[in-house]
Specification:
By secondary structure, the chain is of the alpha+beta class. It has helices spanning about 5-15, 20-25, 55-70, 95-110, 140-155, 180-190; strands at about 30-35, 45-50, 75, 85-90, 115-125, 130-135, 170-175, 180, 200, 205-210, 215-225. The strands form three sheets. The chain has a five-stranded antiparallel β-sheet with strand order 3-7-6-5-9. Strands 4-2-10-11 form a four-stranded antiparallel β-sheet, covered by helices on one side. The chain has a two-stranded antiparallel sheet with strand order 1-8. α4 crosses α5 (about 140-155). The protein is globular, with a radius of gyration of 18 Å.
């Protein structure tokens, strides 16, 4: 980056959103955006989420940023749909209703040993396929994620392991077109700086039934698992 202050600022923003340099390059050092919806993905699956119904700060922050995203090549996430993905459970057709209920019960057991914690949602950045906010600190989120994966594997021993890389984020828009110059996304993010951050207290996690539609995600909560106070 040399001594260019703007370049150093870009690097700092990227580092705050991504935990690995290769991930940072997806946004501040990429040349082109990619269609998020063209990548392979299940049409229906079960997932562990954090949801933000009780965080008006985040909704206000997301709404402010979405108002500045005027490009047709971004599909905005509805405010009721804001979430943080902790990890997958199973494809929709690979799990029975009894197993879903058992995974939820196992989640309750492991979460009984955890406690609520505070997270900060703030720096706007993203990847080639999305714009979103960085979320931290990572450590308690990873602890919750690992516990939920343990619960899932106790019911579904063949469940796929979670990836090593975990970059907690809340997406606010998904790119729907390939080969868009990334400079357009960079300009949108820069125009929004500086942004305030939002704080939220994680008091529960949610097991959701996720449906991937043509250009949107729709999820339905199945079980809300509290973290005891």
């Amino acid at each position: 980056m040399g001594s260019d202050p703007a370049a150093r600022a870009d690097a700092g923003r990227a580092a705050a959103f991504c935990t690995e340099s290769s991930a940072a390059e997806r946004f501040w050092q990429l040349d082109r955006l990619h269609n998020h919806w063209s990548r392979p993905g299940l049409r229906r699956s079960w997932q562990w989420y954090l949801t933000f119904e009780d965080c008006p700060e985040l909704r206000a922050l997301a709404a402010r940023c979405q108002a500045a995203i005027t490009s047709d090549f971004y599909d905005l996430v509805v405010l009721d749909g804001l979430h943080l993905t902790l990890g997958g459970v199973a494809a929709g057709d690979a799990i029975t209703s009894a197993q879903v209920a058992a995974v939820a019960a196992a989640g309750r057991r492991v979460c009984a040993d955890l406690r609520p914690f505070e997270i900060t949602i703030g720096v706007l950045g993203g990847t080639a396929g999305a714009l979103g906010f960085a979320v931290g600190p990572v450590r308690p989120l990873r602890q919750l994620r690992d516990a939920l994966h343990e619960a899932t594997r106790s019911i579904l021993p063949t469940a796929a392991p979670m990836g090593v890389r975990f970059e907690p984020h809340v997406s606010i828009a998904y790119c729907n077109t390939d080969n868009i110059p990334a400079t357009q996304a960079h300009a949108t993010v820069r125009a929004l700086e500086p942004l305030p951050s939002a704080t939220a207290t994680v008091t529960s996690t949610v097991l959701v039934d996720l449906e991937r539609r043509e250009r949107a995600y729709v999820w339905r909560p199945f079980a809300r698992i509290p973290l005891p106070t």
